[in-house]
Amino acid sequence: MDTSKVLSGKDTAVAVYASFKNRLDILSKRGIIPGLCVILVGDDPASQIYVKTKSKKLQSLGLRSKNIYLNNDVSQNELIQTINGLNQDSNYHGILVQMPLPSHIDSQLIINSIDSTKDVDGFHPENVGWLSIGEPRFIPCTPKGIMKIFKHYNIELIGKDIVVIGRSNIVGRPMSVLVSSNGEWSNGTCTICHSRTKNLEQYTRNADVVISAIGKPNYLKADMIKKGSIIIDVGINRVEAENDKGYKIIGDVDYNSVIDKVSFITPVPGGVGPMTIAMLVENTIEAAEQNIP
Ligand code: GUN
């Protein structure tokens, strides 16, 4: 494998974690341990793994971490009451409600009930607004992590044609805002494509950078991209496999198909995933720093 083309989120995360040390020391001298509480509703196996991975990472860094597990049939009111309790709890600077939520719960209502100064996901309308006017508070973790990868590898986006596939509030939408913003390491020209886009290939074939967040395994192939393009694969797709677990995780991008044509690519696993967790830790530290008197 030509590793010179690989943008490693794992390596970027190591550098990022090292940069947290000083910030954690300063907080510790003031008696502040950044704390994150994650709420998981239901028993989706993939979500359970994400939530456990997050808390393990936080604990390994000496941060305070709590997971609250609620039954799939929990009422909307009960969930809001749990969040209200955490909004008042000074031990937890960050609150994250794992998405997706069961269909009887209005996700936006839940997000709105999180204190916006504890919204480490950056999903609260106030934080979405701050980002969109170019005054970011909390930036959603996956897009923020992707921007850090660009910076770590010295990849400038200025003037580049960037196609984001997917318009979710978690990845696609905030990603499009970040790459097109007027800031250092941004200033790209962004097109958002989605499930209703006609002739998607027409966009991806002309793009300097493709950021794929659609959740379709091995979807993006060599004939859909331009030679020399940069490919960011946000896909975390579980597919059956003949191993102990019975499944493996693959991206949206058919890695073997595109590798000879790209100039850079993020692998799955080891690409965007580790950065999402690193940025959740950073946002939790940021939330705790806001509490310094
Ligand atoms: N589900 C998938 N990604 C995320 C995320 O970044 N935050 C939350 N809260 N739920 C998710």
Question: How are the strands of the biggest sheet laid out side by side?
Answer: 5-4-6-7-10
The third-level CATH topology of the largest domain is: Rossmann fold
Q: What value does the Rg take, in angstroms?
A: 19 Å
CATH-level-4 superfamily name of the largest domain: NAD(P)-binding Rossmann-like Domain
Determine the N-to-C terminus distance. 51 Å
Range of helix content: 25-40%
Shape estimate: globular
Under CATH at level 1, the class of the largest domain stands as: Alpha Beta
CATH architecture of the largest domain: 3-Layer(aba) Sandwich
Order of helices and strands: HEHEHEHHHEHEHEEEEHEH
Strand content: 15-25%
Number of structurally distinct domains? 2
Number of strands: 10
**How would you state the average pLDDT, rounded?**
97
Q: Unreliable stretches, pLDDT < 50, 5 or more residues?
A: none
Largest sheet: 5 strands, parallel
What count of helical segments does DSSP give?
10
Ions, cofactors and other bound molecules: guanine
Structural class of the secondary structure composition?
A: alpha/beta
Could you please describe the fold and organization of this structure?
- The protein is α/β, with parallel strands linked by helices and 293 residues long.
- The chain has two domains: 100 residues, Rossmann fold; 132 residues, NAD(P)-binding Rossmann-like Domain (Rossmann fold), CATH 3.40.50.720.
- 39% of the residues lie in helices and 16% in strands.
- It contains ten helices and ten strands.
- It has a five-stranded parallel β-sheet with strand order 5-4-6-7-10.
- Helix 6 crosses helix 10.
- The longest helix is centred in the N-terminal third of the chain and has 21 residues.
- The chain is globular.
- The mean pLDDT is 97.
- Bound molecules: guanine.
- The site of guanine (GUN) has 8 residues, from strand 3 and helix 6.
